[in-house]
Amino acid sequence: MNRYRTQNCNELSKSHVGQEVRLAGWVDAIRDHGGVIFIDLRDHFGITQVVVNDDELMKGVGKEWVISVAGPVRERDQDNVNRKLDTGEVELRADTLEILGPSLNQLPFEISESTATREELRLKYRFLDLRNPKLHQNIVIRSEITHFIREKMRELGFLEIQTPILTSSSPEGARDYLVPSRKHHGMFYALPQAPQQFKQLLMVAGFDKYFQIAPCFRDEDARADRSPGEFYQLDFEMSFATQEDVFQVAETVLFDTFKNFSPGRAVSPAPFRRIPFAESMRKYGTDKPDLRNPLIIEDLTAFFADVDFAPFRNKPVRGIVAHDCAGSPKSFFEKMLSFATDIGMKGLGYISVLAGMELKGPIVKFLSDTKQKELIEKLALTENDTLFFISDVPKLVNVFAGQIRSELGKRLGLIDDSSYEFCFITDFPMYGINEETGAVEFTHNPFSMPQGEMEALQTMNPLDILAYQYDIVCNGVELSSGAVRNHRPDVMLKAFEIAGYAKKDIENKFPALFQAFHYGAPPHAGMAPGLDRIVMLLTEQESIREVVAFPLNGNAQDLMMGAPGTVSEHQLREVHIKIR
Q1: Phi and psi at residue 399, in whole multiples of 5°?
Q2: In this structure, what DSSP letter does residue 161 have?
Q3: Residues 6 or more apart from 117 whose CB is under 8 A from it?
Q4: Which letter does DSSP use for residue 170 in this model?
Q5: Pick from 15, 19, 14, 71: nearest CA to 41
Q6: CA atoms 142, 148, 150, 156: torsion sign
Q7: What does pLDDT average to in each consecutive run of 10 residues of the chain (580 residues)?
């Protein structure tokens, strides 16, 4: 028998009444009723009420002390039943109490209120923060989700293979974390930004389907949905696979995962919507659309081409129809205008549709009766609609329209928080123009296969070439990027040549992959949904740090462990490093 406990703190029920049991855990709360002391004893599993009649047993014991108590289980009076606890019908009467781990009585914060404490303090005492039942449960759910995904991938025939953590620096993507070599003077390893090249090499090596729950390391700034430093992703790759083959795997795994861990919530069934990048930018103003928002952006540039309204002259114009909005209070429109100027817009025009289909707004006087009728018919306007206008330079107009769409969706209560809406964003442009240099450059993953392959590269304007690249988006959060890979050396050379790379550049920067493709590479494709973001969505958290056990803070510091920190001169000399 375990000397510390015979049961966990969530296990006791009326079936245990009269039995002698032993429990161990943390003192969650103490209530002294004068001669009778009640303890809420908490462990990983739950809480049990302990009754102490002997003050001597409790001498010196405070909150968050670790104790082991033993005694009989008894049924609570009906008036004292706690329906909020699994063990709320019973209590343990302590005959013995053993102190296993005392605690400082001055805690940096109350455990039950830790999530409301400033983040820097929470992260410094993360081991205490993780005792908070809500945060504790997030980490438990993360483990269960990870296990579920792992089993689902195995069911689909994927082989779990670990790829290296110490590798070479990547010339593409975010900044690397560098690791100096002791044995090779002046040389450095890098932590992998992703297992991209290794998983492609596994396909060349003859493995059919690979996956891993992969750690990735990128020296980039934090956001609410991105941790600085490191994150985990469900990384997978398939040989002899098309874009649709990858989509089917993602649909199966993600639908099953979200359905299993969000009971009662609607999850968009397979097949998920496929939305080309250009259409997504035009209709939603972003390549990460939240499809729970029913608002659609309309292109009104052609409509206003013959309207003499200076703010729209020679600029693209977008419109968003918000139903049942015209009767909103004046403050609603003032707040929308304030939001628009805060994001960098010069203003936010609108037209409201009043009773009898009368149009009202500053822009109406610039529209003839014929144009007003045309606008009503074009957008199928109805009474009480409001049409908002966004106009700016081409590179900003869609972005601004997307932000206005999102804000209107929130302020009008149009977002269904009880559903998960998935879509694939497809057909990303292969190339774009660097604004500073004017040169043609890759816009996404340079290892992607261009649509049309060699013929497209040889005959098309580079800016018109699309790639077999895709993202998966859920509720406006990008979960993954992926692509059909460019596995042919001749196509790869041509693709990189257009972006300004010579053959020797590829041989120097991607030697293993380029060499491997000369020895018979199968067509292959894959993607890598972010595990942290999946858990964040399923636990309804605003910040990714609420679903990571030991995250860095927003400044990429581990306040608990003191990282990054200084090292000794001896350690620096061993790896041939001198601080300048």
Answers
A1: -65, -45
A2: -
A3: 108, 109, 129
A4: P
A5: 71
A6: negative
A7: 92 95 97 92 97 92 97 93 93 96 95 95 97 97 98 98 93 83 94 95 98 94 80 97 98 98 93 97 97 97 93 94 93 96 94 93 92 95 96 95 97 94 98 92 92 97 97 96 96 95 91 95 97 96 94 93 94 92
